[in-house]
């Protein structure tokens, strides 16, 4: 689906980009107000490095989504001991409570000043600034930095900080340039906030979907296909459950489903604009000496389906869903488990409507996405991105569309923030950011209005006036990418999926070999209830079998021995609550069936 940030973007081009940012993201609530704080922290870091090793050259040191970094040019980089020394020196700088002051210089004086500091990277940046621009610096103690600001007022405000990692980074991100050393850090005004953040990072590590995905045998990755995940049997169960749940909600909301080809001709991608603007991210193939491309997006296919017959206003709205497998070429260095892959299933939909239907349709989409997230217990927040400078289409259309989007969000009582001018050039959009149990935020759903594609594909419907009209097209995803959503769920639940979503819901464990026949009765009884049940009748100690089931995070373990077989009972152990005692098989079957249904 949609994107915004790259100027050459086409519909759907850039959502993966945003996902990267979010994949490394931590708690909400930092954002804009923390920007100056984290940027000031990066100055403290640079100040400390210059105090310790004055010959080190400074490159850039911005605030980022969560924290800050600074790039340094120093022979040999920094050792673990160096990092400790830097943290100590940073403490001194904070304690000294320097005032952080802004000053400006005319361009030529600024150049002389930076030359005297012998900072070649700063000089390069300074010389790249447009003539006539005011050149500002920030100074604290004996340290100053070419910088647009803003900053906090005193170094003492940066009470709690930690340097979190070190990595290599090319100057300007270009591998032809020199490799610099990037030091990352995080900081907060209070120590409790820093502690909570670091605990969250630890927790995130323990929940890492790559680790849990391997342990729970959900998916795998292979050098045979970098970035192309393999779904293992249990992962496939999980994926199908997500699809079933999705289909149920979409069916109720009046969607129809289509499937469009994975490979389509160059001519089509030229028509959609992807061949010119997105080709570097597409896999291409030759068939009978003609160029084709593997689809990076589902939109053009959906447009062809819309155009496959004449449409009347009476046919609208059309809500056309597609669980489309798309392929996008991502640089190998950016791949990350199932969070960032080269092949993924978008839970896509394209809605075709008359202008009058826009408010109802958008409202329906937002309610549907809300419903979908509720099933997993996710809270979310919404961002509305409005008309950018390079917008295409009439301003009145934009104004009206933005008005509709705002009204819909207001009517639904949804909490939202507005990103002025941050929409894609082809239409405004709404993003949904869900919040997981450890406070991280993930952008998943997107609702994107598109003024461009209906025009490129010359979509039409016949209005009540008998004339041809151009429909409004909305692209939207709710999960985003299914594979990534699975990764988010794995981390959100730490692998302990709720009962309805567990690939294995119940495991029956025999105490000895002669209980096997009764155990099989238990298994088939539960399978009749539509439950996913496994039998562990191996000749192993019961303690060992329980431990394994516990590690596999199976919600219920049913232990059966002679006593249970005699009584027609099962001894129930819950993954989350421990021993629940003995229940008749009927009673457990009933309880499990109800619990399974309540999840959906
Ligand atoms: Zn700065
Ligand atoms: Zn689309």
User: How many β-strand stretches?
Assistant: 28
The Cα radius of gyration reads 28 Å
Portion of residues in helices? Answer: 25-40%
Please state the average pLDDT score.
Answer: 91
User: Largest beta sheet, briefly?
Assistant: 8 strands, mixed
Straight-line N-to-C gap: 27 Å
Structural class: alpha+beta
List the ligand species: zinc ion
- Contiguous helical run count: 19
- Indicate the low-confidence ranges by residue numbers: 1-31
Q: Report the principal-axis shape.
A: globular
Proportion of β residues? 25-35%
Q: Widest sheet: strand order?
A: 11-15-16-23-20-19-17-18
Features:
eight-stranded mixed beta sheet, 19 helices, 600 residues, five-stranded antiparallel beta sheet, alpha+beta, globular, binds zinc ion, 38% helix
Entry summary:
The chain is α+β, with helices and mostly antiparallel strands and 600 residues long.
Q: What does this 3D model show about the protein?
A:
This protein is 38% helix and 26% strand. It contains 19 helices and 28 strands. The strands form seven sheets. The chain has an eight-stranded mixed β-sheet, sandwiched between helices. Strands 1, 2, 3, 7 and 8 form a five-stranded antiparallel β-sheet that branches. The longest helix has 22 residues, at 31-52. One zinc ion (ZN) is lined by residues 39, 43, 61, 138, 145, 147.
């Amino acid at each position: 689906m949609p994107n915004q940030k790259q100027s050459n973007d086409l519909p759907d081009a850039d959502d993966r980009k945003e996902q990267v940012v979010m994949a490394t993201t931590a708690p909400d609530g930092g954002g804009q107000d923390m920007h100056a704080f984290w940027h000031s922290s990066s100055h403290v870091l640079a100040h400390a490095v210059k105090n310790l090793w004055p010959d080190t050259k400074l490159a850039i040191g911005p605030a980022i989504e969560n924290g800050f970094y600074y790039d340094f040019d120093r022979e040999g980089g920094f050792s673990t001991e160096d990092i400790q020394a830097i943290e100590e020196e940073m403490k001194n700088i904070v304690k000294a409570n320097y005032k952080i002051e802004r000053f400006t210089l005319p361009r030529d004086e600024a150049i002389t000043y930076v030359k005297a500091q012998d900072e070649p990277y700063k000089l390069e940046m300074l010389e790249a600034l447009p003539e006539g621009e005011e050149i500002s610096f920030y100074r604290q103690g004996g340290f100053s930095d070419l910088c647009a600001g803003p900053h906090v007022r005193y170094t003492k405000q940066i009470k709690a900080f930690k340097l979190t990692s070190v990595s290599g980074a090319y100057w300007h991100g270009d591998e032809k340039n020199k490799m610099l050393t990037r030091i990352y850090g995080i900081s907060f005004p209070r120590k409790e906030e820093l502690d909570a953040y670091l605990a969250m990072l630890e927790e995130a590590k323990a929940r890492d979907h790559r680790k849990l995905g391997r342990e729970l045998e959900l998916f795998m990755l292979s050098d045979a296909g970098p970035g192309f995940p393999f779904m293992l049997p249990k992962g496939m169960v999980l994926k199908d459950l997500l699809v079933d749940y999705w289909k149920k909600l979409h069916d109720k909301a009046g969607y129809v489903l289509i499937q469009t080809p994975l490979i389509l001709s160059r001519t089509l991608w030229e028509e959609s604009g992807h061949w010119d603007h997105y080709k570097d991210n597409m896999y291409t193939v030759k068939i009978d000496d003609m160029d084709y491309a593997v689809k990076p997006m589902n939109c053009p296919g959906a447009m062809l389906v819309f155009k496959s017959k004449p449409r009347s206003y009476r046919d609208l709205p059309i809500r056309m869903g597609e669980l489309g497998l798309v392929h996008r070429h991502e640089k190998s260095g950016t791949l990350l488990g199932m969070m960032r892959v080269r092949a993924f299933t978008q839970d896509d939909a394209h809605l075709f409507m008359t202008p009058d239907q826009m408010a109802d349709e958008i409202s329906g989409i937002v309610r549907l996405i809300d419903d979908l997230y509720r099933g997993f217990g996710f809270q979310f927040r919404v961002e509305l991105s409005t008309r950018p400078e390079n917008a295409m289409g009439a301003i009145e259309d934009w104004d009206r569309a933005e008005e509709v989007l705002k009204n819909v969000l207001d009517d639904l009582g949804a909490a939202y923030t507005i990103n002025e001018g941050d929409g894609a050039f082809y239409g405004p959009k709404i993003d949904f950011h869900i919040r997981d149990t450890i406070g991280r935020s993930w952008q998943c759903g997107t609702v994107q209005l598109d003024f461009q594609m209906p025009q490129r594909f010359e979509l039409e419907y016949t209005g009540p006036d008998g004339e041809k009209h151009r429909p409004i097209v909305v692209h939207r995803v709710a999960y985003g990418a299914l594979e990534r959503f699975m990764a988010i769920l794995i981390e959100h639940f730490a692998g302990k999926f709720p009962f309805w979503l567990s690939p294995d819901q119940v495991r029956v464990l025999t105490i000895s070999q002669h209980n096997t026949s009764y155990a099989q009765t238990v298994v088939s009884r539960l399978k009749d209830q539509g439950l996913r049940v496994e039998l562990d009748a191996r000749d192993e100690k019961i303690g060992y079998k329980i431990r394994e089931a516990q590690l596999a995070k199976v919600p219920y373990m049913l232990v059966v021995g002679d006593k249970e077989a005699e009584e027609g009972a099962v001894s129930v152990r819950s993954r989350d609550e421990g021993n629940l005692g003995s229940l008749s098989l009927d009673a457990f079957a009933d309880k499990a069936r109800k619990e399974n249904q309540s999840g959906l």
